[in-house]
Amino acid sequence: MRLLLVEDHAELAVWVSKTLRQSGFAMDVVARGDHACAALLTQAYDLIILDLSLPGMDGLEVLRWIRHHEKTVRLPVLILTAHGSPEERIRGLNLGADDYLPKPFDFAELEARIRALLRRSGNMETLVRIGKLEFDANTRVATVEGKSLGLTPRELAVLEVLISRLGKPVSREMLFAKVFDMDHEARSEAIEIYVHRLRKKLERSGAVVSTMRGLGYMLGEATDEQ
């Protein structure tokens, strides 16, 4: 899953983006409202974390822009701000924000709210079973017969993207865009490494990542031929 963080407090932006990357998210970070709009026009995101007090355009202006553009009208928006008056929260929610978290905040709560918004938007089921594989979106743990697969953050990110499009092919380019952020220097071919590692960990699970020639990768239940 690829998220956009719009936050002009440099230290907080570094902390939030670093911690979410460790949780398996691809993170892009901008510090200005107008830069957020530019990023949204060039890259598809699964969710945006939006501060309100921003240079260029304030957060409510960005939110209004998001809800008036076809490409982003359904994008989940989590407002993250030090300004927590009831009037401001109501204004943000009326403009189309999906959730509101005042600063300071507990990181576990931030991640839980992100997960809830992704599930609500239809990008992630709560519990997915494929063969003997079970993936719990609440705990973000993949297990086979009760034992954790021990996925790394990027392996977990690959699995989550494939699960979000279960039964449908995901192109290598799309998978790369969801797993790596703009600051990463890797090429799209690097995704093959993580797909290979995930396949190894899924052996004997009854779930398999198939290569669809010309289309990409698809997660599904293994057949007798596989």
Number of helices: 8
Strand content: 15-25%
- Please identify the structural class as seen in this structure: alpha/beta
Beta strands, count: 11
Global mean pLDDT: 88
Alpha-carbon Rg, integer: 18 Å
Outline the structure in words.
- The chain is an alpha/beta fold and 226 residues long.
- Helix content is 38%, strand content 22%.
- The chain contains eight helices and eleven strands.
- It has helices spanning 10-22, 33-42, 59-67, 86-94, 107-120, 153-164, 172-179, 191-202, and strands spanning 2-6, 26-30, 47-50, 77-81, 99-102, 127-130, 133-136, 141-144, 147-148, 207-212, 216-221.
- The strands form three sheets. It has a five-stranded parallel sheet with strand order 2-1-3-4-5, sandwiched between helices. The chain has a four-stranded antiparallel sheet with strand order 6-7-8-9, with no helix packed on it.
- Helix 2 (33-42) packs parallel to helix 3 and helix 6 crosses helix 8 (191-202).
- The longest helix has 14 residues, at 107-120.
- The mean pLDDT is 88.
